[in-house]
Design a protein that fits this description.
Elements (H helix, E strand, L loop, with lengths): L1 E3 H6 L1 H9 L4 E5 L2 E5 L8 H10 L9 H12 L11
Parallel strand pairs: 1-2
Antiparallel strand pairs: 2-3
Length: 86
């Protein structure tokens, strides 16, 4: 489903209802195209704890390469980028 920002703002209830039914709404604006959709419920804290309790002893929740990438990224200092710079 397609809409522009003005139409989306004027008929928000309609587009919200359509998104709740699983329809994806593409909203075009001068800044780009945005997607309005319903997200899944995700993982609750109790789900995470249950998942962690099922892991083998000494195993983490990330694969070995993924954990190494996270650790490497934490060591690299990046300067903040201004959101107004193109």
């Amino acid at each position: 489903m397609e809409a522009n920002t003005r139409e989306f703002a004027r008929n928000f209830a309609h587009y919200r209802r359509m998104a709740s039914l699983g329809e994806k709404v593409h909203i075009s604006s001068p800044d780009g195209i945005f997607l309005f959709t319903r997200e899944g419920p995700g993982m609750t804290a109790s789900d995470l704890l249950a998942r962690l309790s099922r892991l083998k002893s000494g195993k983490g929740i990330f694969p070995a390469r993924g954990a190494k990438r996270i650790e490497a990224g934490a060591r690299i200092k990046k300067s903040a980028r201004s959101p107004w710079d193109a």
